[in-house]
Structure formats: structure tokens, C-alpha cells
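Sanity check. The docking grid for magnesium ion depends on where the pocket ends up, so I'm generating a full predicted complex first rather than guessing from homology. Inputs follow.
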Amino acid sequence: MLDKEIRYLKGVGPARAERLGKLGIATVNDMLLHLPRDYLDRRNVTPIASLRPGGEATVVGTVSRSYDLRTRRGGKIFQVVLDDGTGTVTLTFFHARYLRRKLKKGVRLSASGKVESYRGLSMAHPDLYFLDASEDREYESGKLLPVYPLTAGISQGVMRKLVQTALSEAEGQVGEILPPSVIRDAGWQSRFDLLVSVHSPSQPGEGQRARDMLALEELYLYQQMLGRVRQKARSLDGTPLRSDPRAVGVFVESLPFELTGAQRRVIESVIEDVSRDVPMRRLLQGDVGSGKTVVAALACWICLRSGHQAAMLAPTEVLASQHRDSLGSFLEPLGVPCHLLTSSTPRGERKRIQGELYGEKPCLLIGTHAILEESVFVPELGLLVVDEQQKFGVAQRESLLEGRLPRPHMLVMTATPIPRTLSMTFYGDLDLSVIDEMPPGRGSVETRVMGRQSKRRIFRFLEKRLGRGGRAYLVYPLKEASEQEDLRDATSAYEVLRKGSLGRFGVGLLHGGMPGKSKVEVSEAFAAGDISLLVCTTVVEVGLDVPEATVMVVVNAERFGLSQLHQLRGRIGRGGRDAWCFLVTGSPPEGTAMERLMTLQSTNDGFEIARKDLELRGPGELLGTRQHGIPGFRVADLARDSQLVPRAKALAVEHQRWERLRGEFELRFGPIGPPGI
Ligand code: ADP
Ligand code: MG
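Predicted complex below; grid placement will be based on this.
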């Protein structure tokens, strides 16, 4: 019933159905979840004749006149006379030329604001609401009216009517989702009641509270789904790995540094996870530079020592090659063969590696996703490490291991620290480990936001640093909309610099469009010091580890997310030396851009930065998953509703336990009714 196609709802035909489709409304249920973006309080409309100066009021009328005025100081004022048949009031707007087109004679509107007495009654900058012809009558109804997001061809009045039709058709058909006690404690009788409140509240605030409950409900549903994924994965046979404490000791002693306390803690959980016959599913989060690689290396070591193979997946060739080097630096001295496999690996080499994988001695395979999925098979896979720079959704993550039995352990690494509530949603199917401590002895990174005009100063600075043997990145971040342009900018900057005075230090170019092989060559030349200035696009965000790099200049920084910029600057100051990051703005930054960039200047804490990013740009941008991966919530908004997530999760866990107990109970005593009664 609720999944009835919207075109069969009374009042909707094929034409309207198509328009509603643009709002994502395909079924009656979608219609019920098309929530108002606001409410208009129409209960207290005052006739203009009874307005008194000093108070707040709402009036409704028709524009009878509009004209421009100038103040004595030359400021521009736009005024409108509103008539409701009982009298007139003047609405005054300063610097609001955009309103002139809308506030024409004959337009019907409501205006709410403070009533003043200035040459007759007036209101300065009242809140306006334009009434379309369809609304006039309701408007007099003295209700709290919902205001819906609309699309061309569907008026506010029509939308209200359709939602009401959907509501009356749905009465008696709406099933419960949240536990009844939760709904009752919040003051409603049923889910249907909630829907009525959200679409036609009778008190101010009631609609918003009902909306919050529906958001909770949606997050709860999502948490249940995650719980099921988790449960299903746990029910599969795993690959218990025996971790010999002596082997762990050998690894730890071979390190050129002491592990941090945070690394030790995480390693303990990993060792415990992999020793069980339930497959591990762990997310390793840590700020850029916090030392996740060594944790992954140890996990691989344990796996290999217990006679199984291990594999690591990276999203790009450059990253895969970097991982090969960094994991190899820990594991090769201990006699572990590490193989790199990407799309540029020659066929002969590929064959040889496949042969090794079938051989006696377990080895570590590092590659890009496509490779593991398509061109080689890893027998006896005990552990899969996924470096998740481009985020996958739950389903994609699952598909990597689909069909493999026994199920290998999985360790997912992400370098974007994200607020806990967000990771509970996005990575809710995984257990979480956080490395919240930086290795000692790192240089600090000073960040400065600079205008374009400081270019000269920055170049002088570069010249000095490079002259002393330092290395630097000049980053042109790519953004879809202007990708071509950014790439052109990077390429032409490269040409200019190569021929200029910095040319003698060796200038290289690295961008995503280059063939994998040349990318690897350029990164190696930079690591070796043959190139000291690397002009690049955001490909460096992921993975380059060159301790000598101490300067980074980011061009047009305002176009990028805070977390992305934070990742970028994590590429410098990796050695002990102090490093400098210059965020150069392009055109004068608008809106929150400057505020965002200043956050980077004032803090180095990745979690703090992620919180700010979430607040200012929303989760899709933060996770880099605008196209895919992020759950498509209809009601909940992860930036706004994050405080609901822990509750949703607790309810889902509770529900799961109840379901289990209920099963046990019914086995002994026979069927019982729904929970919570
Ligand atoms: P990320 O978490 O960004 O992947 P890495 O694993 O690349 O960080 O580590 C950054 C650098 O810090 C590497 O050069 C690594 O060898 C070094 N490192 C890791 N752990 C420690 C430690 N406990 N003490 C000192 N240096 C460390
Ligand atoms: Mg890393």
C-alpha cells in the first residue's frame, strides 16, 4: 500500500508523477517522507487596521505600490505598500535590489516583523512569504502551514494537498519502525501520529520534534542493517592465525624506533582479533603521519608467519608502489618476499608472481583493486589490508571478500580522521581502532594563509630552502568542475618554473592523468632528490613519503576541503625538520572559505579539523563520496543529526538482543507479540 506508485495517488496523474519524480518521490511512502523545510505560523494574522507599533506581527496583503527612495546620505531604499483591505503598511528594504523584481504590484504575500511608526505604519526587512494562488484560502485557515521543497510545476498548495491525501490513504497502514516505547516516551502514539505531526503540527516546535524522531528512525534502520552485515560476517568461518610472541618480538626489535603507546594498543587488538576463528573486520583510523603503516606491516607479518598469505590493496598505482616500499622496508629485512602488482606490471612478471603465490613460501602481495579482483588469485589468503583513500560503501567493501571461505581477516585503513558519530554510520560495520598519538621527533608544520600577491615572497622562500637541499611540493588541487583548467595551470606552472631560476634544483610534474609508470618514475626521482620541486595535483595527497620535503605551497586552496588540505600538508615535515605550508588563495575567498582556511592555520589536530569540515560542508564532502558510498538518507542529515547516532545505535543493538532472546523464548514457550508492550 505505502509502496504504491505515486501516479496512482488521487490527484496525481502521469504528468505530476513525473514532476514529483524530480523530488525523489516515486511512491506514497516517499511522499510521506517528503518533509517540510519550514513552517509558517498563520495562526495569528493581524488585520493591518489593528496593527500597533512596537510589537511583532504577521500581515497578509497585496502589493499596491513600490518605489525607490534615497536617504539623505545617498543610501538606496526600496519601499512597498501592502494593502489588506483594512489598511496599508509600508515595508522598507535597504540595499535589496534583488527584491524589486519580485515585489511588483498585485503580488500577494505575508510579511512578519516588528511594527514601527515612521510616517505611518512600517516594517523594516520583514520575513516575506509569497503566496501562490493555490494557497490563498488555506492561508486564512489560521494554521501552522508546512512549507515543502518544490519543483517546477508543483505549487505549494498542490503539494500540501497531495501530502494530505497521502496521509489519509496511509492511515491504518503505517507500520511501526522505532520501538513503541520510544515513540510513546517522546509523546506520540504511533508512527502515523508522528507523520501527522510533521506535516500538520498544531503547536510551534511540534513539527521539528517529529522530524527529529523520523531522523532517529532512519538512523536506527541503518544501524540495524549494519548490525546485520556485522552479524553475517561473524557467522562465517574465519582463519585463526597463531601469533607467536617470539615472532612479534623479532619484528618489534627490528624497528628503527620504539612503537608509540597508541600503536601498541592497536596492535594488541589486532593480534587478539586475528587469533579468533571469527574474521576480523577492523578499521584503523589515525591522523596522517600517526604511523599506521607499521601496524599494517606487523599484521601482515603475523599472518605470513602462521603460513598464510597477505595482500594489501591501494586505490592508485602510486600508492601501491609507495606501500610496497614502506611495507617492504619493514618486512624484507625479515625475509618476506613483497610483490607489487599493478596494471603496468608486464605480463611475464605477473605470471612469475602468480607462480610465487602458489609456491611454498608465503608472501605479501601489494596491488591496486582491479588487479586483485581480476588478474591473479591469492590462495590461502589470511589477511586483506585495504587502504581506503577513496571510500567505499559497505556493499563494495563486502564484495572484496565475497565468496572466500574461510573468510580472510580484514583491516581497513583510513587517513581521514572523522568524527566518531560519522564513523559509526559510515564504518559502522567495522570495529574501530584509533591511533591518537603522534610518533615523537616530528618537526612541526607551520601553516600560513596567503593572498595571491605574496607569490614573490613565497618563491624567494622556496629558493632559499631548495638551495639548502630541501624539497618542496607545489600543489594544484583538482576539482571536477575545473579539472581541465587546474591541470593546465599545473602544467604551465611546471613549464615556467623549469625554465626559471628554480630550474637548477630540478623541477618535476606529477598528475593523475600520467601513465602509471611515469608517475612512479617521477615520485622516485623526487624521493631520491633528483627533483627538488614537484609540481603536482592532488595525487600526492595519498602516500608520498619523502622526509626531506619541508615546504608545500597549495594554489587556490580555498576550493578544497579542510580534511583534504590537512592530508596534503601531512606530506611535509615527516623528517625531524620544521616545515612550512602556504595556502595561497585565488580570487578573494567568499563565504566561509576564509574561516575554513584559518582553521588550518590555527590547529594541526585532524579530528578537530574534520569536525569543522563536517559542520561547514557536510559528510559527503568530508568523506569524498558525493557520488557513491554515503548512505542516501531521506530525513537524517549527518552533519545536523550526529547527536542522534549513538542513540540509534544503542536502540539497534537492544533490538538485536531482543530478537535473539525472543527466538529462545519462543522455542520454549511458543509465539509472543511484538516487543515493548
Ligand atoms: P600514516 O599513518 O600517515 O600512514 P606512516 O605509517 O606513513 O603514517 O608513518 C609516518 C612516518 O613515521 C614514517 O616515516 C614511519 O616510519 C614513522 N613512524 C611510524 N611509527 C613511528 C614511531 N613509533 N616512532 C617514530 N617514527 C615512527
Ligand atoms: Mg600512510
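Relevant for the grid: The first strand starts at residue 38 and ends at 41.
Also worth noting: Residues 206-235 form the longest helix (30 residues).
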